[in-house]
Structure formats: C-alpha cells, structure tokens
Amino acid sequence: MTPEIQTAIALALVAGAVLYFVRGWWNRRKKLGCGGGCGCSSKKF
User: Fold this and answer.
1) Quick one: average pLDDT of 2-26?
2) How many Cα atoms occupy the beta-carbon half-sphere of 5 within 13 Å?
3) Would you state the pLDDT for residue 6?
4) Helix/strand/coil (H, E, C) string of the chain?
5) Band of residue 20 on the pLDDT scale cut at 50, 70, 90
6) Quick one: CA dihedral 5, 9, 11, 15, positive or negative?
7) What would the mean pLDDT of 21-29 be, rounded to a whole number?
8) What is the mean pLDDT of the chain?
9) Are 18 and 28 in contact (CB under 8 A)?
10) How far does CA 10 lie from the centroid of its chain?
11) Distance CA 18, CA 24 (A)
12) Residue 40 has pLDDT above 80, yes or no
C-alpha cells in the first residue's frame, strides 16, 4: 500500500469518527417538546 492510499484511508476514518460524534452531539442538543409558548413541558422526566 502506498503512503498516499494510507493517508487517504486514515483521513476517511477520522472524518467518519468526527461525523459520528457530531451527529450524536446534535441529536442530544435537540430540544424536547414543541419549543413554543404553549405551556407544555419541554423536558422529559
């Protein structure tokens, strides 16, 4: 395997890991409830 191919594979793995963690963070960041002023509970107990 050439160094260029190894570098490309390593960069792809790192990019995939970053995407995985960012996606998880984004899903946890989403607000629960409607987010409006309707008076519903915005947090799950």
Assistant:
1) 95
2) 2
3) 97
4) CCHHHHHHHHHHHHHHHHHHHHHHHHHHHCCCCCCCCCCCCCCCC
5) very high
6) positive
7) 84
8) 80
9) no
10) 20
11) 10
12) no
For residue 5, CA distances in Å to 12, 14, 44 come to 11, 14, 47
Token match 């790192």: residue?
Answer: 14
Q: What is d(CA 43, CA 22) in angstroms, rounded to the nearest whole number? A: 22
Residues shown for the chain: 45
* Amino acid (1-letter code) at residue 7: T
Residues with Cβ within 8 Å of residue 16, at least 6 apart in sequence: none
Closest CA to 40 of 26, 31, 27: 31
